[in-house]
Amino acid sequence: MSGPMDLEPRSGQEDTLMLRLAVPKRPVRTPLGDAATLMLRLPDPGALGLRLPGPARDEEAVNHLAAEMADRIGSAVHPYEVAALLEADGLSADTIRQRYGHPDLFSLAAALYERVPRVFPEPPRAPDPWRPDTLRCLLRGVLFALPALAYPLLAPLWHPGRQAVALVVAGILSWAWGQALGHRAYLWMAVGRREACRTLLRGAPLGAALATAAAAVPAQGSALTWGAAAQSLYLGAAGVLLVLGRELLLLAALSPVVAGAALLPWWDPGPVLRAGLPALALAGTVAAAGWALRDGFGTPAAAGDAAAGPPLLRSLPYGLFGLAAGLLVLQEGVREPYAVIVLTVSMGPAEWLLYRYRGLSAAALAASTSPAGFLLRSTGVLALCLLAYTAPLVPAALLTGAAPATLPLLAAALWTALLLQAFGAAWPPALICLAAAGTAGAVTLFARTPQPSVLPLCSGIAALCLTGCVLRLLGRPAPHA
C-alpha cells in the first residue's frame, strides 16, 4: 500500500446507490457530414443516480447511550477511542443502523464524543509503601524498656555501689556494637537472609565478649563481672531477635521477668526466684535467638560470590552514633532515671514516625510542582513529626520530676539523627551527637558546681544542627523519588 487507508466512508456516498452508465469515448457522428456533425451530449454519469432513503437517526436513543457510557467516554481524547469502546461492547453494524440511525460505527462514535464533555479523572491513589505497622512499633518500644524490670528483682541481692560503672560501660559498648552490627546485618539482608544470620552469629557473641572484657576493668574482678556478662549476652541475643523481626519471641522470653516484677508490690518472691527469673529470661532469650538463627540458616544461600560483603567502614558511623546516644542518655539517667525509661519507651513511637515521615514526604512530592514548593511541604512534614514526637514528652517529663526541656530536646536530637540514618546519611548525625555528648560530659566532669542546663543546651544545639541537615539533604525531591 502506498498511502494511508481511510477508516471512515467519504461524505456524500454513505446513503446513495449510484448507477453509472457506460459512456462512449468518442461522440456519435450522423451521416450529414463533418460540418453538420451533431454531438449527442449525454448527462454527467454522476448526475444520474437512484438515491435510497437511509434510516432516520434516533437522537433519543443516541442520547440514552451517551448517558450510559458517559463515565467511559468522558476520558476519551479522540472519537476513535469511543469507536473502540463500542466495538468492545459488541455493537453490530445492523444495530447501529437500525437502533441509532447511523450508517456505521465511526459516525455513532463521533456523535457520542460530541455529546459527552471531556472529563479526565485523577488516577487512583497508590497505596502508601511506607505505611507503618503500628502494633509492631509499639511492641518494640515496650521491649526496649522491659529488661529494666530485672533490676528491681535483683536489687536486694547485690549492692554494686561504685562498681556499677562496670554495668554502665558494658551497656554503652553493647549499645554501640549493636547499632553497627544491626546496620551490617541489614546490609547483608539485601543479599540474603542466610548471609545476614551468619553476620549476626559471628558478631553478637563477639560484641558480648568485648563488652564483658571492658566491664571487667572497673569491676576489679568482683562478681559484678558476671552481671555485666549476663547483661551483654542478653543485649546481643535481643539484638539478633529484633533485627530478624522476632519481637514476639523476645516478648515470650521476657515473660518470667515481667511476671516477677508485676508481683513485687504484693509478694516477695524470695532470693531464689529473684535470681532465677532473670536467669530464666536470659536463657530463653539466648535460646530464641539461636532458634531464629537456625531458621535463617535454613534459607538458600544467595547466588554468586558474596564473600566480601559490604565494607566494614559503612557501619562505623552507626556504631559511633550508638556510642554518642548512650552517653547522652547516661547523662540524663544520672539525674533523672525515670525520664530515661520514658525516653526508652518512646523509641517505639519514634520508629513509627520515621515511617510516617517517609510516607508524608512521598505524598508531598506528588503534590508539589516545583522544588521550592516541595521544600516548603517537606519543612511542614518535619515540623509535624517533631511536634508529634516531642509534645507528649513534656507532660511525661513533668510526671517523672524531670526538667520539661531536657527530655524533649534530647528526644528531638535522637529522632532527627535516626531520620538521617534512615536515608543513608550516617556521618553527620554521628559527629554532631558525639560533639554534643562530649561537650556535655566534659563540662559536667570538670565543672566545680553542677550545671543542669548543659545537657539541654547541648541537646538543643545538636537538634538544631540536625534539623538543618535534614532540610538540606531531605528537602530536595531526589531522596524521596
Distance between the first and last residues' Cα: 47 Å
Number of strands: 0
Order of helices and strands: HHHHHHHHHHHHHHHHHHHHH
Query: Low-confidence parts lasting 5 or more residues at pLDDT below 50?
Result: 1-54
Kindly list the characteristics that best describe this protein.
64% helix, disordered N terminus, 481 residues, mainly alpha, 21 helices
Q: What are the SSEs and their pairings?
A:
Elements: H1 59-68, H2 70-73, H3 79-88, H4 93-99, H5 105-115, H6 134-145, H7 150-154, H8 165-189, H9 193-219, H10 224-243, H11 247-253, H12 255-263, H13 270-297, H14 316-335, H15 337-345, H16 347-367, H17 371-390, H18 393-399, H19 406-422, H20 427-446, H21 454-474
Describe the structure.
This protein is mostly helical and 481 residues long. The protein is 64% helix and 0% strand. The longest helix is centred in the middle third of the chain and has 28 residues, at 270-297.
Short description:
The protein is built from 21 helices and no strands. The protein has 481 residues and is mainly α.
